[in-house]
Amino acid sequence: MPALWIAHVTVTDEEAYGKYAALAGPAIAKHGGAFIARGGRFVQLEGKERPRNVVARFESVEAAEACYHSPEYQEALSHARGASERELLIVETSE
């Protein structure tokens, strides 16, 4: 079953987060992820608002999780830590 990687982000250090973004995109693509939404317009209806929301589609929960734990993504993530506040989850779709 396909899965969505959903991130809700508040960037606190634009320069460091830019390094994350430059590395994260290729890491996600390498693992079969395709972006559906990246920081576009949104309406917050409930919960904590984060100004940046990202959704990527993967072929499975396992593929998305493997991407997260990959050396390439972990290198990217080292730049996001301390440069952002974020929540990240993977959810299986019904399609």
TrEMBL record:
<protein>
    <submittedName>
        <fullName>DUF1330 domain-containing protein</fullName>
    </submittedName>
</protein>
<feature type="domain" description="DUF1330">
    <location>
        <begin position="2"/>
        <end position="93"/>
    </location>
</feature>
<dbReference type="InterPro" id="IPR010753">
    <property type="entry name" value="DUF1330"/>
</dbReference>
<dbReference type="InterPro" id="IPR011008">
    <property type="entry name" value="Dimeric_a/b-barrel"/>
</dbReference>
<dbReference type="Pfam" id="PF07045">
    <property type="entry name" value="DUF1330"/>
</dbReference>
